[in-house]
Amino acid sequence: MISRMQNARRWCWIVVLGVGLGCVLTGCGGDGYTVAPVSGTVTVNGKPTANVLVSFQPMASEKNINPGPGSQAVTDASGHYELKLVVAGEDRLGAVVGQHRVRFYSADNKVLPPDFDYGSLDVAPPKPVASVLPPGDEGKEVPFEVPAGGTTSADFAFPLK
After folding, report:
1. pLDDT for 16 beyond 70
2. pTM reported for the whole predicted model
């Protein structure tokens, strides 16, 4: 006959194993943020514009002081971009779900903003390039909410209003 103590130990192990298996399957202790796909188009005076660095930075709140990493992309010849997380050693598309500050810079073939801290990377800062944005819009910041399901219409038209 199983004693009460043996039964309690058995249940304890079942719970511990269940929680451990759940963590392995769901990723307990993971990032703490959700990522969704984000893409769109940038236009200047109604025309799709290439070589615009689009930089999304999630905004902290009282409930979440570390909302996760930023994302960025450079527009192609059709003004289209698809965001990618800026996380060393990761190649993950999308942006953190929630409210963001979005900034725009003229870009060369690099995908790092001009004010990025290059101290920890083994790359040279990008060379200055001629602005493809209207005067006064370089580095301009606008809010954007990344929805849980992501979006393919994170479109921005310059001059920004």
Report:
1. no
2. 0.69
Q: Which domain holds residue 90?
A: 35-158
Same domain, 103 and 25: no
If asked whether residues 9 and 61 sit together in one domain, one would say no
Looking at residue 92, its pLDDT comes to 87
Three-state secondary structure readout of the chain = CCCHHHHHHHHHHHHHHHHHHHHHHHCCCCCCCCEECEEEEEEECCEECCCEEEEEEECCCCCCCCCCCCEEEECCCCCEEECEECCCCCCCECEECEEEEEEEEECCCCCCCCCCCHHHCCCCCCCCCCCCCCCCCCCCEEEEEECCCCECCCCEEECCC
Domain count, the chain: 2
pLDDT digits (tens, 9 = 90+) for 23-47: 433 333 346 789 999 999 999 999 9
**Residue 135 pLDDT level (bands cut at 50, 70, 90):** confident
Statement to judge: residues 132 and 53 lie in one domain: yes
Question: Do 70 and 145 belong to one domain?
Answer: yes
21: phi then psi, degrees, rounded to nearest 5: -65, -40
